[in-house]
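Annex B.
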Amino acid sequence: MMMQTRQNRRGYTEYFVTGHHLNLTDLKTEGKNFKLRSNYLYEDIPNYPKPEFHVSRLKHETGELGLRGIRGDGGFRTPDGESKIWWSLAVGPDEINNAEMRLPENRFPDRRSVAPEQQRFLWKFATSPAFKETSRLGSFRFTFPLQEVLTAYRDQICSGDDPVMRVYETVLYKQEVMYTVLVHSPDLNKKFSNYPLLTDDPNSICVYKDGCFIWRSEAMCETHWYEFNEDQMEARHVRNYQFYVWDHVALALHVENNQVLKLDFKKPEDFLTYCEKDDVTYRFEFQNLDEANELVKELWPEWLGALKVERPLQMNYPVTELKLVLTGSCGEETSSTGNTISGKQAFYSSGSGSVEMEVDNLEVKIINTPKFSELTTKEEIKETLNYIRCSGPALHVFLLVISLKNITANLIRTVERFELIFQNKALRRTMILFTHQAQTELDIQEMMQEVQQFLTEKVGNRYLVFNNRLEDRDPQRVSDLLRQVKKILGGE
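AIG1-type G domain-containing protein: predicted C-alpha cells.
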C-alpha cells in the first residue's frame, strides 16, 4: 500500500491508494509518509455520530453536452478515452433518518422512545457536498434505483451474469475523499484481479449487501457547525466552525468498446431533476432553470411538465432557525428594516453586520449586507457571499428591501441589480419588502397596483409591505413576516 499522485482529466491533482478504502486514521498515516501537505486532513474535528447509510439509489450529474449525448445515445457512455461510467450514492432524508435509527443501541439506549422530526439530529451533520442539492458537475441530475442500474449493466454488459464489485481506490483531493468501487463483467476477473473483492466486512467503509450499498461515512461534515453530545443525544453548536475533509462513495462501471448503458428514459419526471450551481464547480457548463427546462423540452418534446428543483436537505425538517439576509440599494432602508425586525438599534446606514433574536420559538439571525453600490467588483461580491455562508448553518432567505417611494422607477432596476449580484437563482429564495413609514393604506394600494404584473412574474406572492420605523414596530407584523419566510423554506 503506497500513496501515489496523478493529474485527472480536469487538470486537478489527485493523491490515491489503489486496492484499499482507507479510514481517516490510515489515510492520515499514508499522507504523512508521502509528506503530503494538507490544511484539512490532519485537523482534529468535533465529536460527531458515525452513521451507517443504507443506499439503494444512484445519481449521475452532467451539463448540457452530457444531457444531449445521453438522450441521443439512449443511455450512458464513457467520456472520450475512458472506460468507466461514474455514478455516486444518492443519500437523502430517508437514508439519513434510517441511519439515525440504526445508531448503536448501546450508545443510545433510549433511541427507540425518541419522538419524531423535532428531535432528529443526524441531518445537522450532513453538510458535505455528498448530501447537497447543488452540483459541481452540471445542472442536470439523473437518479435511478440501484437495482435498475445494476440489472441493466448485468444484461447489457455482463451477458446476463452478475457483475463483480471490487475495492478500487481511495482518492484524496484538496478537501475531498472519494472511495471508489469498481464494477465489471466476470469475464474480466483476470484483468482486475489485483483489486480486492468488495466483501461484507463490518469494518469496511463500503460494502454491498441485500441489494444496497452500506456506506460507513468517515467524514460526513465538510463544515462542522455542530458537535455531538452523546449523553443528551443532540447536536450542539460549536463556538467556532471548522472545515475538514469530507468523503463519499463513487461507482465506476467498467465498459469496453464504447458500449452504452441504456436505461428507461421515457418519463423525465421519474429520473431527472435540476441542480443549482454549487459554490465550488469542476465545470463551467451550467444553466439557469428556464434554460434547463427549454433544453429538456427540446430533447423530450412529448413531455409537458417542468423540472423539479433539488431542494436543500434542511427543508425536509422543521424550521427552528433561519437567517434573514437584508439587501437593497439603500443602506438606510435595509438598516432601518433590520432594526425594526430585531426591535433595537442594531444596524446603521452601511456595511455588514448581524444580530440574533428569538421569535415564536424560532432562532433568527438577521444579516445586513452592503448596499448595491458597494458591491461592484467580483471580490466585493465574493466577500459578501462568504460572509453569508459563514454566518451559520441555517438556511437563509433574502429580504430585498425597496422603498415605496418612487416604486415604479426603483423596482425593476433594483431587482435587476439583485439578480446581477446574487444570480437569478436567489430570487426563488427571496421576499421583497416594500418599506414605508407614513403611507396610508389607500396610497399603498395604488402604488402596488402599478407593479403587480412585474411582481407576479418575478416573485409570485413573495412580497410584503412593511413599516420599518422602529418606533412603530408591531410584533405581530414581525411574526407574520417570519411565517411567510418559513413558507419559502417549506417550513409550513
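DSSP finds ten helices and 23 strands in the chain. The mean pLDDT is 91. Further annotation is deferred to the next reporting cycle.
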